[in-house]
Amino acid sequence: MPIKAILTDIEGTTSAVSFVFDVLFPYARRHLPAFVRAHADEPEVAAQLDATRQDAGEPGASLERTVEILLGWIDADRKATSLKALQGMIWQQGYQAGEIRGHVYPDAVDALRRWKAEGLGLYVYSSGSIQAQKLIFGCSEAGDLTPLFSGYFDTTSGPKREAESYARIAGAIGLPAGEILFLSDVVEELDAARASGLRTCGLARDGGTLEGHRTVASFAEIDPAGA
Known about the structure:
Blueprint: E1 5-8, H1 17-39, H2 43-56, H3 63-76, H4 81-96, H5 106-117, E2 121-125, H6 130-138, E3 151-153, H7 163-173, E4 180-184, H8 187-195, E5 199-203, E6 215-216
Parallel strand pairs: 1-2, 1-4, 2-3, 4-5, 5-6
Helix pairs in contact: 1-3, 1-4, 2-3, 2-4, 4-6, 7-8
């Protein structure tokens, strides 16, 4: 069954983990308090703040307490959908101001462009919000890469370590799971994707293997036709 679409993770796969932890997270943490205070009454922000309170089990939390909760989640790298949405809004301001440029490995850029030209559908699945995904590729060091992608998925499709999430994404893409190749640097994600029927390839950019899955160090080593 030939591969017709590629679903890729971002952090550690198309982009350096250090970019997320050394650039994006500190930027969001530094700007979050002022951003929340300035925009708390806007519907989109207010909805995420309410979701944060509910998720934290503190529905009556004050604005300042909600800020504390969010900062704690950033420090703990919690994959909370409301936090990811707020981070995406903050990063958007940073990208638009030219203070941030998205990091994408050159080998990933080359491969994505080649696969697009070959007619493969390209999709993203990351724990970061869809907005954040579009920003990292749209304001990347290599220019605007968003025209390469046909769709984006985040944790609103389900946790990345659960097979049901990948089945849901395959349904949204509209292809049999066996015609989709999933790329990630996390073995538990690859396991979940395989359990739902997707084909898999692991990225280990510093060497090593992701047990149970074909593992490469670069996108240049990936041949969808031979996956």
